[in-house]
Amino acid sequence: MASDAEEDRQQEEEKPFAVERAKTGRAKCKKCKCPIEKDQIRIGKFVTNFFSEGKLMPAWHHVTCLFDVFAKQRATTKKIDDPAEDVKGWDQLSDDDRKVILDKLVEFEKTCNYPKLILRKRLIFSKSR
Length: 129
Hints:
Blueprint: H1 4-13, E1 17-21, E2 41-48, E3 56-62, H2 63-72, H3 83-86, E4 87-88, H4 95-111, H5 116-128
Parallel strand pairs: 1-4
Antiparallel strand pairs: 1-2, 2-3
Helix pairs in contact: 2-4
């Protein structure tokens, strides 16, 4: 039987995104290819690690760049719906850092072309066929 700590760790690993302040400034944003400066907020989307079979690694983005990527993705592609549930490291962020991301999330939801209600209707319709 797994301990509570192990279960928490497994749940953290299953989150599709991660957020933190950049540790060194060497990572580059996957969208704009510019360096993410040291101590700047960065969000990573977990993708397949080509160097280690079956493992995932974060593809880091500037906060603004990640939401630009979301705007161009398919409606069915995983996006951040609830940061507390979807983002590893959310609890470690300061309130100011959380506000920056939440403001971008609200702005994205206002401007995106596919409201959640439409997406849900599409998914329900496709399952009923």
